[in-house]
Amino acid sequence: MRFASLGSGSKGNATIVHSNNTCLMVDCGFSVKDCVRRLQRLDIAPETIDGVLVTHEHSDHWKGVLPFASRYSIDIYITAGCLRATGLCFNDYSGLKLIDSHKNFTVGDIEVTPIPVPHDALEPVQYIFVDDHCRLGILTDVGCITPHIEKQYSGCDGLLVEANHDQELLNAGTYPKFLKDRVASQWGHLNNSQTAALISVIDQACIKQLVIGHISQSNNNKSMVKKAIEYVYRGSAQIIYADQEEGFDWLYLTKL
């Protein structure tokens, strides 16, 4: 299995997961033109993508999903709540595939586990991907860490997790109070300390690739994230810090 990001941040998100003959995209917060350009960097043709998995309806994850999927006749996997929030119905696009947020499903060579998460959206989920050899967890846009999240994301060979903001920078920043309250709430985003706390309790020995993403350009910086994460991480994997423009290139997961 391998995975890569087209971009990670408040201006747009999309992650590619590839195993054997199956290629999946998680979210698409970019225009069709921009998405295709970013896919070219990874040598991925849009026509080879087998499905777009939606985490939630916020524009930085959703806005390009329907235009991209309909352009290239790609199935969209989405929860009932998220579908309702988008205002779409099955008559709008024949490729809509409703998923149960508490039930695994399979797309080609990849088994997908949706993980319900606390976030200010309608039935948001994150995802864990498993093939014959590896387990990859993607965890962004989550306001707090629950025992279920700790259990599910422990034992991953690869992990992409958000460290959205530094609490002090957010408090002192220019966001209006309602937005600060939203970001910092249990339905908002993980701060550096929360992400570090999660990493400190999961099984670090399994991790072959660790990526920190969805880092706020306004309320965080890489040096603060590095300090928080590297203080608790004792594994051997190199830590990758994803960014908005480049995301990150292919990372490979193999069992030793």
What topology emerges from the helices and strands here?
Blueprint: E1 2-7, E2 14-19, E3 22-26, H1 32-41, E4 51-53, H2 59-62, H3 65-71, E5 76-79, H4 80-86, E6 96-99, E7 105-107, E8 110-116, E9 125-130, E10 135-139, H5 147-153, E11 158-162, H6 167-172, H7 177-184, H8 192-201, E12 209-213, H9 222-232, E13 239-241, E14 248-252
Helix pairs in contact: 8-9
Structure, described:
The chain is an alpha/beta fold. It has helices at residues 32-41, 59-62, 65-71, 80-86, 147-153, 167-172, 177-184, 192-201, 222-232; strands at 2-7, 14-19, 22-26, 51-53, 76-79, 96-99, 105-107, 110-116, 125-130, 135-139, 158-162, 209-213, 239-241, 248-252. The chain is built from nine helices and 14 strands. It has a seven-stranded mixed β-sheet. Helix 4 links the parallel strand 5 (76-79) and strand 6. Helix 8 runs parallel beside helix 9. The two termini are 13 Å apart. The model has no long low-confidence stretch (mean pLDDT 96).
Structural class by helix and strand composition: alpha/beta
Chain oligomer state? single chain
Largest beta-sheet characterization: 7 strands, mixed
Unreliable stretches (pLDDT < 50, length at least 5) are: none
Order of SSEs:
EEEHEHHEHEEEEEHEHHHEHEE
Straight-line N-to-C gap: 13 Å
Shape: globular
- The proportion of residues in beta strands is 25-35%
Strand order of the largest sheet: 6-5-4-3-2-1-14
Q: Could you tell me the number of beta strands?
A: 14
Brief summary of the model shown:
The chain has 256 residues and is α/β, with parallel strands linked by helices. The chain contains nine helices and 14 strands.
